[in-house]
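Objective 1b. Sequence-to-structure analysis of RNA polymerase, sigma-24 subunit, ECF subfamily.
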Amino acid sequence: MPGGDGATEPLATVLPHGRTRDEEFTAFMTAAAPSLARTAWLLCGDAHQADELVQQALVRTYLAWDRAREREPLAYARRVLANQRISTWRRRRREVLSGGVPDRGVADGQDARADRDQLARALALLTPRQRRVVVLRHIEGLTEKEVAADLGVSVGTVKSTASRALRQLRDALGDNDDETTPAGVSRDGGRS
């Protein structure tokens, strides 16, 4: 990162708004990191892996910053994040988030954590493509068109993948009521 005015930094380029490339990326990174961290956790279900995914995605986004900032930088970073997760999944091939659900009851203050853990286990049962579509569409709240653009697929593919994935999640979570979807996700695609 540049120190001071950025003029002594050989890689720092002054941008039209008087900010250096590094300053512009730092502002983006600060704003986007929480959203990317949430998406990464939902994609892999592990906090440490999610942190690594976010770091890798931010590095790759930084390296392609000139191209990424001219489009939608957050969408670009999410796509890099999803692609990194696919690469990680392919290397590991099989991943188990945890054993079963404990037999003991859950204290009142831990209900949200238990729901989140149950959702993470259910998401782990989906294929990587299904998981990406569900996370981006129903948890991050993107439109079908935005998900299609982020993942480089057609809107029809997003719709069919989401439909199959949600049916699989309902089965995994024991929710066979057609009027509801899993753990805090409304049928219209947003958080409830």
